[in-house]
TrEMBL record, chain A:
Annotated protein name in UniProt: Phosphate transport system permease protein PstA
Record family assignment: Belongs to the binding-protein-dependent transport system permease family. CysTW subfamily.
Record localization: Cell membrane
Membrane spanning residue stretches: 25-45, 51-71, 83-105, 148-174, 186-213, 219-237, 269-290, 342-364
Pfam families named in the record: BPD_transp_1 (PF00528)
Organism of origin: Zhihengliuella salsuginis
Automatic annotation (TrEMBL), chain B:
The protein, known as: Phosphate transport system permease protein
Main location as per UniProt: membrane
Entry's transmembrane regions: 24-49, 69-102, 114-132, 169-192, 213-234, 284-306
Role, per record: Part of the binding-protein-dependent transport system for phosphate; probably responsible for the translocation of the substrate across the membrane.
Organism: Zhihengliuella salsuginis
Alphabetic keyword roster: Cell membrane, Membrane, Phosphate transport, Transmembrane, Transmembrane helix, Transport
Length: 374, 316
């Protein structure tokens, strides 16, 4: 009766199913062993926490592989190795995110909470003022009001130009073109436009305005609006096109069957159906261009005071403000004040971008067409 | 009866207002398309016209005693390519790993939140990454540079000293890698989840481990998509300006990755264009044209790969 004969392993409390598997606690043993070995190795050459964590991880992955080869087989060991590596890749990807957010919060939050940071501009903030505040330990003066105004105006301007052009183009592509040469050309060149480096868009806008209004006066908010529009239009076209394409054809046909004209069908049926997707796509496009630095730097220049006029004089924006404060501190001998302002501005910018992203998700969810119930 | 007359006025197919409306609306839509083509033609034309003086300039005409335009832009081109290449070498394995983690390894209910977290990486503006690389990452990497310089100095890319501030081409590449990671990840993820379920289940049913299933079912399906995702990431890295402008302390081209020096085209433009005039401006615009052409070629190759494999890959 062979079925009644128990193997040695089963007598030790293991079932036949788990024979040939490594014990459950292998990973814990490997981890503990790796941590100890890593600490010992680093104790010889100087201990630091980051090095210890990295070395432990490497040793853990290696020891898990070896122990699985020994206890099970090579195929299972390879599988485990790649599982560990994939998890490791995810952890590695999280490190810079955590690090950036931590840096921004730890340096930027005190700056953001400094009195008047959001309400004042940099007029009258000279190196001497910074030097004094650092020496005496008082709160850093100066703020981002002018940059906020500039970013707001430039982004609104770019949206006003890009959204109609982008929306109408995608309407043409989806509703009117019949896959002819012209629509293929538009699709292709929109792809090309998506790949334009932002600095090249800035060069183009700066140069175009120089030809139109002459050198010197061409540095103004409107040049930056043009540059950002070049970057924003293709994003709007692509997202809107996708949204229009998912509108079911039955809706259009039902409208035609009632004798409604095509343009009214588009305005009253197609666009209302897809408006949530279009709006969230536009919001994401805004979130993308509001962080662009290089095109604004070469078109709108830099300024220290609030300028409400898009068509005259240099204009500051948030990303350029961060760049200037980082690269050219107001007081070169006391750069801490400028750095704090830069990180606080970065915090403001990140908050704006996050809010826009959340808003886009909210729009997409809240105003999505109802699928049932009618 | 008023309702019927109103209806007929609204919906009468022969009403002149409706027909005119149709014509006007389609005309406006067509115009918008033409405007886009015109803008792009304008960008290209403007870049070429403004570059011509610099491209055709002979010796002595260029600023700062450069002998020819190509000797000026050539080293920066190489610098741009090295920075982007190293960034891709660093980013691609991690990005593919993260995409696999989201699509095949993480618990199902966690994959969407994890996707949001990776999208957060894409939401942070480039200038913030630049500032982070300049003040945090650079100094953090200095000990590693010192070690490399002392122990691996015989390798050409580490030869000849190291930077005390950490503002080197390698730091810039790491920052670029962080920036292109979410792009590659999100594209790869979209392709990975489209792998036919039957292929995966067939592999598992034959006794394959999860890794063997990924190797035999997922990767062959997604290969073209991964390549084009990497190419699109390259297009982004090539044109990235502020991260490099903030991180790198520029200088002449050297093969050394860990000391100050080297320069990329976009950073050169951003740093010098605001003060440039005359021939210097033409030089920078011509450099922009070169960058435009390079990114255009890279992006077109990526799209071409996608379109060639359209039938069996979800990469579009």
């Amino acid at each position: 009766m062979t079925t009644n004969v128990k193997t040695d392993l089963e007598n030790k409390g293991r079932s036949r199913l788990t024979v040939g598997q490594k014990p459950r606690w292998t990973w814990a043993a490997c981890l503990a062993g790796s941590a100890v070995v890593a600490a010992a190795v680093l104790a010889l050459i100087g201990f630091n926490v980051a090095g210890w964590a990295v070395l432990t991880a490497v040793l853990y992955v290696a020891s898990m592989y070896v122990s699985t080869v020994v206890l099970e087989n090579r195929r299972k060991a390879t599988n485990g190795l790649w599982t560990n590596l994939v998890f490791g890749a995810f952890v590695i990807a999280l490190l810079p995110l955590v690090s950036v957010l931590w840096t921004v919060l730890s340096i930027g939050l005190p700056g953001l909470l400094a009195p008047g940071f959001l309400a004042s501009d940099m007029l009258g903030i000279t190196g001497a003022v910074d030097q004094q505040s650092v020496n005496e330990g008082t709160s850093v003066l100066g703020g981002v009001a002018h940059a906020l105004v500039g970013s707001l105006l430039i982004t609104i301007g770019a949206t006003v130009i890009s959204v109609p052009i982008g929306l109408l183009t995608s309407i043409y592509l989806v509703e009117y073109s019949r896959g002819g040469f012209f629509s293929k050309a538009i699709t292709f060149f929109v792809d090309v436009m998506t790949g334009i480096p932002s600095i090249v868009a800035g060069l183009f806008a700066a140069g175009l305005m120089m030809t139109l209004v002459g050198p010197g006066t061409n540095v103004m908010g409107f040049s930056a609006v043009l540059a950002l529009s070049v970057l924003m239009i293709p994003v709007v076209v692509r997202s809107t096109e996708e949204m229009l394409r998912v509108v079911p054809n039955e809706l259009r046909e039902a409208s035609y069957a009632l004798g409604v004209r095509k343009w009214r069908t588009i305005l009253r049926v197609v666009i209302p159906t897809s408006i949530s997707g279009i709006a969230s796509g536009v919001t994401l496009a805004i979130a993308r261009v509001i962080g662009e630095t290089a095109p604004i730097l070469v078109t709108a220049g830099v300024a220290i005071q609030t300028n409400w006029n898009l068509f005259q004089d240099w204009m500051m924006s948030l990303p350029v403000y961060i760049y200037r404060q980082m690269m050219f501190p107001t007081a070169p001998s006391a750069p801490d004040a400028s750095e704090q302002r830069a990180w606080a501005a970065a915090l403001v910018l990140i908050i704006i971008v996050m809010l826009l992203n959340l808003l886009a998700r909210f729009i997409a969810k809240a105003f999505a067409p109802k699928k049932s119930g009618r | 009866m008023t309702t019927t007359t109103q209806q007929s006025a609204l919906h009468d197919p022969k009403s002149a207002g409706g027909r005119a409306g149709d014509k006007i609306f389609s005309g406006i839509a067509l115009t918008a398309g033409i405007v886009i083509l015109a803008i792009l033609a304008f960008v290209a034309l403007y870049l070429v016209v403004e570059s011509l003086p610099a491209l055709t300039a002979g010796e002595g005409e260029l600023t700062n005693g450069k002998t020819s335009f190509w000797s000026y832009v050539g080293p920066m081109m190489v610098g741009t390519l090295i920075a982007s290449g190293v960034a891709l070498l660093l980013a691609t394995p991690v990005a593919v790993g993260v995409a696999l983690f989201i699509s095949h390894y993480s618990p199902k209910h966690l994959s969407q939140p994890i996707g949001y977290v990776i999208d957060l990486l894409a939401a942070i503006p480039s200038v913030v990454y630049g500032a982070w690389g300049m003040t945090f990452l650079g100094p953090l990497l200095v000990p590693a540079y010192r070690w490399l310089s002392e122990n691996a100095g015989w390798i050409p890319i580490f030869a000849g000293g190291y930077s005390q501030t950490g503002r080197t081409l390698f730091t810039a590449s790491v920052v670029l890698a962080v920036m292109v990671l979410p792009i590659i990840t999100s594209m790869c993820r979209e392709i990975f989840v489209q792998t036919p379920k039957l292929h995966e289940e067939a592999a598992l049913a034959l006794g394959a481990t999860r890794w063997e299933m990924v190797k035999m079912a997922v990767f062959p399906f997604a290969r073209a998509g991964i390549v084009s995702a990497v190419m699109l990431g390259l297009g982004r890295a090539l044109g990235e300006t502020m991260a490099v402008a903030l991180v790198l302390s520029p200088g002449v081209l050297s093969a050394n990755l860990i000391s100050a020096g080297n320069q990329t085209i976009p950073a050169e433009i951003a740093l010098n264009f605001p003060e440039a005039f005359g021939m210097r401006q033409n030089e920078l615009i011509a450099a922009g044209l070169v960058l435009f052409v390079i990114t255009l070629v890279v992006n077109m190759i990526a799209r071409w790969i996608v379109s060639r494999h359209k039938e069996f890959s979800g990469a579009n």
